[in-house]
Amino acid sequence: MRRKQLFAIILAGALAAGSAPAAVFAAESDVAAMSEEGTGDAGSEDAESEDGSSDAEAPVTDGGDAADVATNTPAADNTAAEETPAADNTAVEETPAAEETPADTTPAEEAQTQEQTEENKEVDPQEGESTETVEDTGIVIADANGDPVKDDTGNVVYYKTLQDAVAAVADYDEAANPGATTIQISKPIVLDSTVEISGKKVNIQSTAADVTITRKTEGEPYKGAMFSVKGANSQLQFFADGSDSAALTVSGKFSDDEGEEAEGAIVEVSDSAVFGLNPGVTLKENSYSSGGSAINSKDATVVLVGGSVTGNFGDMGAVYSNKDISIEGDASVAGNDGNKNITLDGEAKLVVTRDLTGTSSFSHKGEKDGLAVLKAGEGVTKDVLAAAVKNISYENAAKYELNAASDGLSYSLKEVKKEEPDKPVTTDYKLSYTSNSKKWINHTTVQAKCSVTGDCEWTYFFVDAKADNASITSTYAGLKKSLKFTSVKANTEFTVKAEGVPETDSKLVVLTRKNSSDTKPKAVAINLSTSSMKKARPAKPQATATIRPERTHKVTEGTVEGFENPVKFFPKRYVSFTAIGAGTRDSAPYVSGDERWVPSYWTFSTADNAEKHTSWSVGAAKGLQLKGQGSKSYTVYVYCTKEVYNGKTWEPTDVTGYYTTSFTAVEYTDEEAAEWAKQNGTDGNGGNDGAGGDGSGDGSGGTDAKLTATAAASAKDAGSKSKSAVSTADESPIGTMSVLAALSLLAGGYVVVRKRKKEEI
Question: How far apart, in Å, are the Cα atoms of 211 and each of 207, 238, 240, 508?
């Protein structure tokens, strides 16, 4: 072929490719359009094509909803697909996924002269097909409803590695993406490099039994940190999905040689980042001495809501932190090498945030007498804290013990001082019980009087009614360190008010001694099991109702009723729905501090300029005809105001939030539309379709919806309910919902534009 002919062919191909919008090529290959920086088109703006036309793609933007990921397969360089906030009107330049020239745009001259070999032929992928597929790796991103995100063809999007999935999570944004995105895993994962999380909020959740994350051991084993969470607005939490079988185990073991150490912790968290451990998760078998072997936290936040940290090895314990560590539930840090479990540093403390049933121990690198090491979190009472402290031990107990503050809401270290033995006492004395002085104060308290002839100190305890002197002596030996003694002078009668009388037959033992070195204490046993004492014992008091803790709710717990089934939007048909804010259906009585989220209005978008509606119905004056489309799903954002009960009334706050739901519109025939109009009145006096809305007979009460929210990404099966998140207030009608306007603004709108161009030709 001559050089001039070859040049003409290349030039003709370039002109043909340049004349077609880039978005069209992206639509044909079903590969997400990427900007020059390598980020996915995650904004709500229109993306400009190469020829200046605007082929709009409006992806879901749902406050951290994992469905916001704009690509169905991770980019080859693992670059995260970032979400562009809806309010940002910056155009994103789409790059063609492949420079393919459609057959109908190839010049005739080129078709006649271009030579093709088997090696240079390219197959144009069909619409809806992906150029790359990822097998079921067990790694998916979940949407706000907990369902795996699917691509435009309805297939679940799988990620090759955890790092790929993290890269696909949108960066934290206080307004557009404040929540965490959940990555679900259902198969074992082997790490050969650190999973790095920065500027993102990520939950890693097991959805199956015995899911493990381990280090690579074959060949050159991987020894570095398994996870790194670094920087403000960076968060990682480990979860099991709450089912009976689901569990997640993260093991740092890479060798059977116990003397060989790793080069990093299981989780390194630093620079104001956050790490959370939850029930059903275990961190184990990591050997590392330069920091906490399981969790190594520096200037960061660690929250232990549940789960177990056990079987780890290292001089600085399994968990190290120089900031406060929150702990509650069944969280347990125990059974690590050398009883080195939690190591606190600097001014760090353990903070009990709720009831604690798990067992843990800790030490403090700055231990000294009076150092505050443990406290109650917000709303935790001294009784809850005292119960929690029974499950927490200080590892250097030989030198320090935990000492409660006067208010019972904090504990500090108290140095254990050895008692110096008193000088032997030779003076003898007598202890006597005053006959018939015993009597009941209440069901669990009894009173008796005794007297002594010499200076001494007294205490009491209970034994079984059949206990002999040997049993009494043995019981005293076991209780000696915990008994409280009261001094009494010689020739004095004193009253013993003994609390905690057992329900079983028992004796009250009153014991006296000269001092702690007295090896021959005296005791009298007072029988409480005589028939007269049993008969006189007061009845057990009735249990009193306890004041429940305040009810708190997340705005995302809100629901919507009325969108359970797909809807055919005939002309002037308005469908009512009911927004149920989180906590609004809680029953009285209420207690001070109870919270609820009251719906204020709804929108089709989170953009600042989104139209806001207070009429709780949706429809279209001219109908929404989806011929050839089958169905489309739309996202609704329900904005709520937080209210707090002050003990008498509910008071609104200035805190707002939103949750999401979705509904599905389906196509209909002209005959169905005519039949509906006939049954409901040809003048549109059919009224609302469903109860609870504000629509009137002519449809003016509902919202004439021009659906601008994206479809498909958060669509649900027909008949299902959706739950998610919300935002805020006023009402203005939505314009006519014509077929072309609705479709041109949907995600994947570029495909429709291309079809329309073909029809015009």
Answer: 8, 12, 9, 56
